Amino acid sequence: MEVILKEDIIGLGYKNDIVKVKDGYGRNYLIPKRKAVIASVSARKQLAEDLKQQADKIATLKAEAEKKAEALKDVSLKIIVKVGPTGVTYGSVNVATVADELSKKGFDIDRKIITMHDIKKVGSYEATIHFFKDVEFKLPVEVAAEENEAPKAAPKKKSAEAPKAEKAEKAEPAAKEEKPEAADSQEAEKEEAPAAE
């Protein structure tokens, strides 16, 4: 069935667009929630008349959307997150996170107009901000690990990969240097025990 959208629905279309949807989706969700009306002949005529009358208003809204997109031209986000030893983030970076980071930079953007996949790994990504029908902005988003997380993960990997003989030799100097840290000294004692046998 074809419907005329009464508001922007990300992934489907923008206000006053005529879109084709499945009958169930149209009848059970869009029309009862007043997000759309059936695109009958009379509704299409009414839409054409409304668009003629609102042409100036639409042009103004589009110009404002273009200004907002232009203001973000040189903006990119770097989001610092906690990362586990496998490189996977604790939690995910999503549209709410991006909206919060933008508000910290002074850009008040509704998270409902931002689309992106939830990010669960460190790397470079892209969020799309839908300002208006033909005005979209691709925002670069870089997700980086906290600096103190990376060094902790590296020594554990090396010690796990090293042969047992090398473990025993490396454990003795490590235990002497890292006496203040209780956790490391306990690991060293555990590693020394097999060497003594």
UniProtKB/TrEMBL annotation:
Q: Which family does it belong to?
A: Belongs to the bacterial ribosomal protein bL9 family.
SUPFAM superfamilies, A to Z: L9 N-domain-like, Ribosomal protein L9 C-domain
User: Where is region (Disordered) located?
Assistant: 146-197
Domain (Ribosomal protein L9) ranges: 13-40
- Basic and acidic residues biased stretches: 158-197
Tell me which InterPro entries the record gives: Ribosomal_bL9, Ribosomal_bL9/RNase_H1_N, Ribosomal_bL9_bac/chp, Ribosomal_bL9_C, Ribosomal_bL9_C_sf, Ribosomal_bL9_N, Ribosomal_bL9_N_sf
Protein name (Swiss-Prot/TrEMBL): Large ribosomal subunit protein bL9
Q: Which HAMAP family match?
A: Ribosomal_bL9
